[in-house]
Here is the input.
Amino acid sequence: MKRIGLIYIALLLAVSASGVERTILLGPKTIGRAWKDNIVLEPRHFMDAHAGDIVTVYNDNAKRTAQGAFQNPKTWQGVAPEYGYFGINGPFRMVLTEDILAIAREHGVAIGGHDYRIIQVTLSDAADYQETMVWNGPSVVMKDDWSANAEIPASSLASLRVGDGLRLHVSKVKAGAAAKLMDFTWNVIDPSVDGVPVGENGYTWYIYDDAPLLKLALAGTGGNVAMRIGGTGYKLDGIGIVRQVGEVSEDYSQAQRAPKEYVLQPGELFHGEKVYPLDWSGYMKLTAAPFQESTENDVLVISYTIDPQAKAAGITPQMSFRSPKTWGELTGAAEPIPYLLDGTDVVYMFDAVALDEVKTRGLVLAGVGFTLTKIELISAQ
Amino acid sequence: MKQQFLVKSLLFAALILSASSCKAVEPENPQPQPVTYTLCNANATAEVQQLWAVLTSQFEKKAMSGVVANIDWNTREAENVYQWTGRYPALNVFDFINIHASRDVNKQGWLDYSDLTPVIDWFNAGGVVGCMWHWQVPANNGTNWTCSPGTEKEQTSFDASKVNDPSSDEYKRMVKDIDQVAGYLKKMQKLGIPVIWRPLHEAAGNTYDFKGGKAWFWWGAQGAEVYKQLWRFMYDRMVNYHKLNNLIWVWTSQVGDDIWYPGDDVVDVVGRDNYYALQYPLMKEYKALKEMYPNKLITLAECGNGDDVDMSLWSKIWEEGSRWSWFMPWYDYNYNNGTSDEHQFAGKQWWLDAFGTGLVIDRTEMQKLLAK
Here is the structure.
C-alpha cells in the first residue's frame, strides 16, 4: 500500500507540473471572407493567466488562403506585430506576454481573419509545452532586401514531428519584420510561412501534416542543409522544437459560448444574435448585393428582442436605417428617422431614394437597446 | 446701377427670344446625333485605326473580353479562361510594374520586358494587346519599389510636381522610366502591334468616396492639376518625342473626378476600375461616365469580386443597362500558383456566363472582326 501511495503521489506531481489545457470558448464561429467576422474572448479568461501561457485556436473549413489574427478589440490592431495576420494550416496559437495580458484583461482578445471556422479555443499553461533548442546559430541578420538566410542542417531537425512547433528565437526586430521558411531548394516549405510577420517574441510554426517533413527528409541527413530561413528585419539567433505535453480538460463549465449560427434561408439577410448595446455602439452593414433586383414592392422585416435593461437605463430601444456612405438617413431626410421598438417586428418599406441607395451601396442598421435576431427581404407582391 | 439694370433687361429679353426661337425649330421627335469617336493622335498607325474601327463599331452592341497578366509579363489568366470555357478572351493586358527588374536594365532582374515573346505570341494568335503601368519608384527606405505615396519606409515621397523641374531627381527618374517603357512600346510599333495603353490609373484614389479619402498612387498624391500635367508630359514624351503612334490612350476615372480628366485631346477611352461590381451601381456609373464623356468609349478597365461583394454575372450587368466597351477581371496570384482552389476575382462560372450571353467578343471573333 505504501508503495502504491508513493506512485500515486508521483503521478499527481507529474500531472500538476505539466498543467491542463482548458477550453475557454466553444464554437462553432464562422470567420467569413474579407476580415468581416471576429469573436472576442472575454477578459475574465485572462485574469489568472501568466506570461508564457498559450492560447490555441482549433479550427476547420480553412481555405488554403485563410488567415488568422489576434487583435486588440479596441484598436483592431494585432495584439503584437506577429499576430496581425498569419496563414492557417491547422490549429494556431498565441503566446501571452505581459503586454498582451494587459490588453486581454482590459478588453479581451478578438480572433479574426478570414475563411475558416473556429471550433474551440483553449488556454494552456506555459508548462504544457516543452521546448528543446536544436540550433543555436551562428546568428544571421535578415537584411532589408531579403537576401540573407540561415542554413539549418538536417541533424537539427531530425526529431521534428507532426504536431510540433518550430520556434524562431530572434532579436533586433524591426517594424515590418517577416520570415520565410524554405526547403533546401529555396522553395517556400509551406504556403503559410511565406513572409510571416515576426515580432519580439519570434515566430512559431506548427506542423500539421507530413508534407513539410517529407520535404525536409529529401535533403538527406547529417550536415546537409534541410531548411533555409530567410526574411527581413530581424536577427535569427536560434531554433527550438516545441512539443505539447499537457493534459486536456473536458470541463467546459467556464467556457464562453459562441453565438448560435444559422444557415440563411432564402430571403434571409441575417439570422443569429447581434447585440445593440446601450451605448449606441451597435450597427450592422448590409451590402447592396441582395437588393440588386429589388423594387419598391420589397420590404425588410426585422425581428429582435428588447434589452430588458434598457428601460432601467432610461433608454428607448430603437433602430434606424442609414446610408453606408454618409451614415445619414437612408431616405435622404435631414435627420435619422427612429423606429421605436415595442417587441413587434419592424417592417421597412423603401421609397425611391432609399431603394436607389440600397441597390447602390446597401444600408446600415443602427440602433440601441435590442438584440437583432433576423432580417428578411420580402416581396410584397 | 441703372446701366446694370438695362443690360440685365436686354440679356433677359435675348434669352426669351433665343429660347422661343429654339423651340420653334425643334423637331417633335428629335433623333440623337450619331457620335463620332475620334482618336486623339492624328498620326495613329493603320493598325490602331483598324482596331479602333472595330472597338467603336462594337461599342454598346457587344463587349470585348479581357484579362490582365499574372502580375506583369505573361498570358497566364488567358490560359485560365481557355481551360474553363474553351475560348480565349480577346484582350490581354500586360503590366510594366516591374521594369526596374527587367534584365535589359538590371542584370539581377527576374524578367525581361525587352523580350517581347509573350506579346508577340498573343498578338500572332489574334489577341488584342493592352499595357498598363503600376509605375513603381524607389521607396523611402531606398531598397523597395512602390506606387504608394507617404512618408513610411515602404512608401514613397516621390513628388510628381517635379515634372515641371527638369533639374530635379524626380524629373530625371520620370523621363528615364518613360523612355524605358517607350522603348518596349516602340518595339511593338515596329512589329505592327497596336496597344491599348492605360497608364496613371485611378489617380484620384478615394478622394471623393468619403471625408479624408485621398489618392493611393504617387501620381495622384499632388492633386488634379499636377496629375494632368504629368499625363500630358507623358503623352508628349511618348507621342511627340518618341513618335509612338500605336497607342490607344485610356484614362481611368474614379467617378466624380472630372477635374482630373486630362482632356479630350489626349484621351481616347474613359475607363472605370470597380471591385464593388454589382449590376445596379455599375449601370449608374456607366451612365454617369457616358453623360460626362459622350465622345469617348467607356470601359470597365478593371473589375472582379471585392472584399464586400461578388461581382454580378456579366449577363446581369448587361441586362441592367451597362454597355462597357470591354471588361477586365483582375488576376489571382494564389490561384495561379496553385495555393487557392477558387479564383478570387472571376472564376469559371462567371466566364461561362459571360460568353453564354452571345454578347461578348472572344479572341476568335475579334480576329474575324479585325480581318474585315
Confidence is low (pLDDT under 50) at residues 1-24 of chain B. Chain B is about 35% helix and 15% strand. Residues 40-371 of chain B form a domain with the TIM Barrel fold (CATH 3.20.20.80). Chain B touches chain A at residues 141, 143-144, 153-154, 209-210, 276, 278-281, 284, 306-310, 312, 316, 334, 339-341, 344 (CB under 8 Å).
